[in-house]
């Protein structure tokens, strides 16, 4: 059996997936290759490297670096590019983040990779959001690529609630009412749960997941109104949600909050998707593999409370922000 490559292993999803593979002894460390593009990423991966994982340098802008990094790998976990600015201003096909993915996939083909697992996102496909556009294009590309492929629509992170909840600043936000451009239930899912479930998929025989598209989202969903109540309980003061139109949302965050206009206009279309309830997912695929490890999904309430408490501890000086 060839090795498994994790492209972007020092990022949030890649790192927890790597650690799940190691902690649960799903794959021998010597059969894992991690790519990173930065010195800080390489440093973060040092503990895994000391266990026998191979760390190789690769950069989105250097296709040849990925060809070298993927040598000897049979499987590739391709984590979507974090360079979201490529998607801004309604990037046309082939010019958004999918351009990064296409270069990595061409390199994987040249290196002899057989099976690509792609970290898509838990929206509809096609979606009203612009966030999903690069994922749609990459999923479509994969299906015609000649690879064995698996599209894993990773659940919207529990830990990302501040982004959806009006770009909320957990430590310093003094707003008692937070405007957003839309609302519905979301099947929030914690990063650690996604890491373990994804690791179990990667470690399984290729034929078990080849040609499949599925969601990894927990079954219990919460609206942004629910999140407002969780924040209120955790902070001990009321924080309300205010649903406005998308143009009103954009004007508020660009003019009043002084946020970057291309980013806000790209992000605001997420709320069009929420209005259509795209992110309430009914797919048991996450909870079944977690159960095999005796684990239940981490609740949204727990994540919100932990994040608020962590920021409070830093603010009060009980914990160093650099610890």
Task: Describe it.
- This protein is of the alpha/beta class.
- The protein has a domain at 3-157 and 191-216: 3-Layer(aba) Sandwich (Rossmann fold), CATH 3.40.50.
- It has 15 helices and eleven strands.
- It has helices at residues 12-23, 39-44, 46-50, 63-69, 98-111, 133-143, 161-164, 191-203, 206-209, 224-235, 246-256, 261-268, 270-275, 287-292, 300-315; strands spanning 3-7, 32-36, 54-57, 73-79, 115-121, 148-154, 177-180, 185-186, 212-216, 222-223, 240-243.
- The strands form three sheets. It has a seven-stranded parallel sheet with strand order 3-2-1-4-5-6-9, sandwiched between helices.
- Helix 1 (12-23) packs across helix 8, helix 4 (63-69) crosses helix 5 and helix 11 packs antiparallel against helix 12 (261-268).
- The longest helix has 16 residues, at 300-315.
- It starts with a strand and ends in an 8-residue tail after the last helix.
Give a brief description.
The protein contains 15 helices and eleven strands.
Key phrases:
single chain, 323 residues, alpha/beta, Rossmann fold, seven-stranded parallel β-sheet, 15 helices, 11 strands, 42% helix
């Amino acid at each position: 059996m060839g090795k498994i490559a994790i492209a972007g292993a020092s990022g949030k999803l890649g790192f927890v997936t790597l650690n799940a593979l190691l902690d649960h002894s799903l794959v021998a460390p010597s059969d894992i290759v991690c790519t990173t593009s930065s010195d800080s990423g390489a440093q973060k991966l040092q503990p895994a490297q000391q266990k026998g994982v191979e760390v190789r340098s690769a950069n989105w802008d250097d296709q040849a670096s990925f060809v070298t990094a993927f040598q000897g790998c049979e499987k590739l976990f391709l984590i979507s590019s974090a360079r979201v600015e490529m998607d801004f201003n309604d990037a046309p096909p082939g010019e958004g983040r999918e351009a990064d993915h296409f270069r990595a996939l061409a390199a994987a083909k040249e290196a002899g990779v057989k099976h690509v697992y792609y970290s898509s996102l838990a929206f509809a496909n096609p979606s009203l959001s612009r966030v999903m556009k690069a994922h749609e294009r990459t999923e479509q590309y994969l299906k015609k690529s000649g690879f064995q492929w698996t599209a894993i629509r990773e659940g919207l992170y529990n830990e990302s609630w501040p982004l959806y909840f009006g770009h909320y600043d957990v430590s310093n936000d003094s707003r008692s009412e937070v405007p957003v451009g839309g609302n519905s239930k979301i099947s929030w899912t914690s990063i650690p749960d996604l890491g373990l479930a994804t690791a179990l998929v990667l470690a399984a025989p290729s034929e078990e997941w080849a040609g499949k598209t599925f969601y990894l989202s927990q079954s219990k969903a919460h609206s942004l109104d629910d999140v407002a109540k969780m924040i209120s309980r955790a902070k001990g003061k009321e924080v309300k949600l205010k649903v406005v139109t998308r143009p009103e949302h954009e004007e508020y965050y660009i003019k009043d909050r002084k946020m970057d206009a291309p980013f806000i206009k790209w992000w605001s279309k997420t709320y069009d998707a929420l209005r259509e309830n795209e992110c309430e997912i009914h797919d048991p695929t996450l909870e079944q593999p977690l159960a095999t490890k005796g684990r239940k999904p981490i609740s949204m309430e727990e994540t919100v409370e932990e994040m608020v408490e962590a920021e409070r501890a830093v603010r009060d000086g009980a914990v160093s922000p650099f610890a």
